[in-house]
Amino acid sequence: MPGVISRLYRGDINIDFVGKRKVWYGLSVVLLAVSILGLVLNGLNLGVEFRGGSVFDFTRTPGSSIEQVRETVADAGAHQVIVQQAGPNWRVTTESLKGEEATKVQETIARKYGISEEQVSSQVIGATWGGEVSQKAWIGLVVFMIAIMLYLSVAFEWRMALAAIVALIHDLVITAGVYAWSGFEVTPATMLGFLTILGYSLYDAVVVFDMIKEVTGKLGTSAKMTYTQAANNALSHTLIRSLNTSLVAILPVAAILFIGTTLLGAGTLKDLSLALFVGMVVGTYSSLCVATPILVTLKEREPKWQALAQRVHAKELAAAKAARTAKEPVSAGTQNVTAQATDKRKKR
Amino acid sequence: MAPPTSSQSKPGRTLLLLLALILVMGATVALQKAFVPKFGLDLAGGTTVTLSPVTVNGRAPSQESLDRAVTIIRQRVNGTGISDAQVAKSNDNIVIQIPGAGRDEALRLVSTTAELRMRQVLAVAAARTQPAEVPTAAPTPGGSATATPAASASDSTPARQSAAPTANPSPAGRVLSKALTAPTPEAGAATGGTTERKQGSGARAKESPTAAPSPSAPAAPEDEGDPLAGQDTSGIEPALLEEFRKIDCTAKNRGQGAIDDPNKQIVACSDDGTARYILDKAAVQGTEISGAQAGTDPTTGEWIVQVDFKSKGASLFSDITRRITTLPAPRNQLANVLDGVVIVAPTIEEAIPGGSARISGSFTQTTATELADQLKYGALPLKFQQSSVVSVSSTLGQDQLRGGLISGALGLIIVVLYLLLYYRGLGLIGVASLGVATAVTYLTVDVISHNAGFRLSLPHIIGLVVSIGITADSFIVYFERIRDEIKEGRRTLRSAVEVAWRRARRTILVADAVMFIAAVVLYFLAVGDVAGFAFAMGLTTLIDIVVVFLFTKPLMSIVARLRFFSKGHKLSGLDAERMGRTSPAEQTLQEA
User: Is the pLDDT of residue B342 over 50?
Assistant: First the structure.
């Protein structure tokens, strides 16, 4: 069956990702604008770990209800009580409690539901802790980006480094936008997810760039393709690998998401895999439709590739003309176009 | 045709290398009988407290002071007998992990700030009262000090200077004297006391309760029934006398971390657990110390600790030393109490004005530096706030562990199925490689958790599961390259495997380098879960490289000789018809 799937399997497709780059740029600009708007208007729904507060987890006993649990905890002296069902557990979020206050809530819960105090898990997070965590993460992110810029500049070249970093920022902003609009809670686990996306996004871009470097490295002055076309070929060629990789990466994450949601309810597993899931979808899009097009845009500004593009276009034009005016003398047309091309080069 | 590389001719050797690696780790695991990795508290249950230092100007505290704080907190936690507790520095924070229950105790332990205080010794005895032994020695006749401490302040008998250390070695065996003064009398005093002090120090090092040295020779023989017999108990609160008789300083809990009120007399143990003291109200606060350095005495070459005071501290210190230097032992000793225990109790040889003093007596470089640090940083206590206190019940921990393991297994199964469906025979090699990667990862985690203090926690497990994708991608990159070579139709499988490897190797290394840089940067700069996650990512990236180089590639070389693969069987994943003969890349290359 020569359908899309089998053509995909054979790597026998040539989608013009790079040629349509204006479309992708437009789409990405809209997505970025919407994301930033969401971040400005809605902001992120930060979890207790960032806001400061207390969380208690304990096994749901038969017959206990959300209302009942809320009353119990409120009676123990806690304010801003929110009760959620998390898998087989109750999860109670309150304001940040002091040591003794937290102990009192634990005791009260334990007494009321007939479990031992040790079976009530708790987290008490100071108001400034989240700030420190995110500050450290920001520093880490900036250092990471600088390190990657340097590394890619050495391993490849600065244009590839720049294109990869732009794609990465693109992914992070859009993922954050999804969180802002959807109101999903942002916890440290979510941050882990973001950071992983960052790794994947780059990883994928690096594999694609490696192929582009290999393919375009063979383009001499007499080549019959422009950089754009060669890059697009390389991209189509690694497409099957990119899709495979993304799929293989998303599958375990989907497994975590599934288990995290069904078995555990709220918690690290769910938060992390949700961020990964959203981010990977965005990441796959950007490595195909953002990173490589940006690279091509940058590369086509180089005189070497400009010249090549002009020669190739001239030849194509000539070929087309020759085909159309098959009866006319071919040599005149060719000369004419070549002269035009030389003319253009002189102006630059 | 590509020249055969060495790895092509000897793939078996490379596989043996990997086998040897696995066997070594396997043997380590078997020898230690440690088949299950140690789990972090989020999986095993327990309390994790994160302390962040609060500095006045908001600047980061010095690493030295943090290290000091870690040591002090570790001593406190270990002193309570909580087993397997970990205290570690994580960036500027201190993370305390206490397995099992005991949250309140943990909070109390770490919430007190460590401050140094100098207190006059009022009474001293061996570590504990030993009821089994018959009190043979009669109290020394005539409690030597009749003068009350207050009354003797004006006394000044220079002759005591040399007599004090020889006659009354302190438990710490140390003397306090003027720093940087004319060498003759001091040096004489110091050398005169050296032999005696060394004896005291030697006994002290044994740390066994029976070997506890006589802390104050004339006053308290070690096997005496009443530790206070023969000692001057005037001016001591009666309640403290009773407490002093009962306290057992050889026990693990010696009152570390006790909140000592500077305005009250206290009972305290020496930090090595060999002596107990009754101490007067604090005479000088540690905050009055401006600095302390370890160094050597220019004349004797002996290690000493020099202490400098701020102006108020200097006058307070001058007053107390003048007052007590003339008193009989042990009341001429000035105990330095840090965190509820006596770290040093030197005998005051003379009144020390001028705001500078030195402590001498059988120090080594290590002990001198340690004491100087204690004086210095005890004097500048870091204030901490509890940034986060997380206590996980064992049931929740088990749930999380189960969730992590199930998702890991599920993720693996899905990836395995996908590889088999897509790559057929080649997929089998991918699956085998994933299997080896899983085994190596498990062994590595197990070995480092038992030998390097690593604790497997939920962020690690997630990091490992997520990394399945990266590991699998290395195979995919390689397989796609092989398929390219075959598609071009110019090569046999055996040479395609080698040519593709040279091209795939670079891609794999460059891509893995990116992941590794990410992991390293995050590990060192981030805090908490993020750092743990980064560790797992970095580890699996390394393991990925090991497995691809030492397993996948050589296995591919061997497999390429099999007819099933080399003839492109329909199920091998290398079936030429299915793959198509030409590819865009090839077109590119040909057109170029």
Answer: yes
C-alpha to C-alpha distances, B319 to A152, B153, B206, nearest whole angstrom: 67, 8, 36
What CATH code would you report for B43-112+385-389?
Answer: 3.30.70.3400
pLDDT in tens, A125-181: 877 777 777 777 788 888 888 888 898 898 888 888 999 889 888 888 988 898 888
Q: Which of B288, B438, B300 is nearest to B360 (CA)?
A: B300
Q: For the CA atoms of chain A, what is the radius of gyration? A: 28
Chain A CA closest to residue B111: A99
Other CB atoms within 10 Å distance of the CB of residue B185: 16
Which residues in chain A have their CB less than 8 angstroms from residue B472's CB? 245, 248
Q: Where are the domains of chain B?
A: 6-40+393-591, 43-112+385-389
Q: What pLDDT score was predicted for residue A205?
A: 81
Query: What letter does residue B296 receive in the DSSP assignment?
Result: E
Dihedral sign (CA B562, B568, B570, B574): positive
| Mean pLDDT, all residues of chain A | 77
Q: What is the token pair recorded at B224?
A: 């005496």
Nearest to B392 among A121, A124, A252 (CB): A121
Tokens of residue B63, six digits: 């690493």
> A191: left (phi > 0), else alpha (psi -120 to 50), else beta?
alpha
pLDDT of B351-384, one tens digit each? Answer: 888 788 888 777 888 778 777 777 766 544 566 7
Torsion of CA B277, B282, B287, B292, to 10 degrees: -40
B531 shares contact with chain A (CB less than 8 Å): no
Q: What is the pLDDT of residue A8?
A: 58
Chains A, B: CB contacts within 8 A come to 280
Strand-pair partners of B386: B51
- Any CB–CB contact under 8 A between B411 and chain A? yes
pLDDT value at residue B577: 53
Helix extents (H) in B62-175: 63-79, 103-111, 160-167
**B6-40+393-591 has CATH 1.20.1640.10 classification:** yes
Q: What share of chain A is helix, strand, coil (3-state, %, to 5)?
A: 70, 10, 20
Nearest CA of chain B to the CA of A317: how many Å? 18
Of residues B386, B522, B585, nearest to A140 (C-beta):
B522
What is the Cα–Cα distance from B377 to B391, expressed in whole angstroms?
A: 30
Alpha helices in B268-310 (DSSP H): none
Those residues whose C-beta lies under 8 Å from the C-beta of residue B104, and which sit 6 or more positions away, are A99, A103
* B518: closest chain A residue by CA: A144
* Residue with the larger pLDDT of the pair A252 and B161: A252
Distance CA B24, CA B198 (A): 47
Residues 268-327 of B with CB under 8 A from A: none
Say what the pLDDT of residue B576 is.
Answer: 55
Q: For residues A56 and A277, what is the distance between their CA atoms, to the nearest angstrom?
A: 27
